[in-house]
Amino acid sequence: MSSNTSITPTTIARAALLRKTTQSFCAAFLASTPPSETLDQYFRPDGPKITEYGPEWASRRLPFLGKTFSGRRKRGRNDSEGNEAGSGKGDGESAVGDVEEKEEVRKTGRKASTCDEYFDLLGATLGFHPDEHTFPPPSAFIVDPNFSLPPSQSSSSTTSTSHSLTGPPPPDQTANSNHDETVPEAIEIALDGAVSVTAHARFSSLATGHSWSETFTYRLSEFDAQGRIGHWEIWADPLSAWMAVGEGE
Questions:
Q1: Helices (H), the chain
Q2: Cα(217)–Cα(182) distance, rounded to whole angstroms?
Q3: How many Cβ atoms are within 10 Å of 219's Cβ, its own excluded?
């Protein structure tokens, strides 16, 4: 990875855009925004990715761990009608789209792999209970507007990530950039960039009802020119989740 540390009006403006996107993205969780709307609004349309790191053995109870989910669920011709009918229920997808997706899974035998399916698996396993103190103020976000990955690790690569999916070390939270930031009306050049956020919330197992509090870290990266997210990486506490979900086994 590389990061040019030079500070210019362009990088300051870029940092402001990424910080604003991250603030809105985090606020979507507090507002209980349906996952499909979150993906539509904040993620790049060209192959977004989600990776929650964890040991491979934990995926038996926590199937959203240890792999990179990429792309979006297919949508049928009547998807707009399905979104309208499903508003407020969190599904965000039409019956037509769901049938097509399930048929593809049946025919190919593939495992869940899209970003929509990450949220499906997570939501069927754990409850997320954020509050007004879950996310820090935007000034505490770690913003690197010049962060970029080598071509072999970018979204265009067929390799989802170069790290073991047990997880690379979480991003360094010791440095920050607090320039006077003004969001421009338009930015013509995409510089990728990355934003790291450390947060705290309560989670619960839907199967057992057991709950716990944990600190976790997000890294958002591979932003496009409009500031839409290319890759969302999560470092959390898989051991607590594993124990909570399997309590009583």
A1: 9-30, 35-42, 79-86, 95-108, 115-125, 238-245
A2: 26
A3: 20
CA distance 146 to 141: 15
pLDDT higher than threshold 60 for residue 226: yes
Q: What is the pLDDT of residue 204?
A: 97
As a whole-number percent, the residues of the chain with pLDDT over 90 amount to 59
- Are the beta carbons of 89 and 97 closer than 8 angstroms? no
Query: Cβ distance 201 to 134 under 8 Å?
Result: yes
**Of residues 46, 49, 71, 29, the one with CA closest to residue 220:** 49
Alpha-carbon torsion (239, 240, 244, 249), positive or negative: positive
Higher-confidence residue of 82 and 146: namely: 146
Write the pLDDT tens digit of every residue in 144-154. Answer: 999 987 665 55
**What was the pLDDT predicted at 133?**
96
- Specify the residue for token string 């899209």: 114
pLDDT value of position 90: 36
- How far lies 46's CA from each of 50, 193, 224, in Å? 13, 17, 10
Decide if 98 contacts 79 (C-beta within 8 A): no
Cα–Cα dist 30/136, whole Å:
13
- Side chain identity at 119, as an amino acid letter? F
Query: If residue 6 lies in a helix (H) or strand (E), which one and from where to where?
Result: none
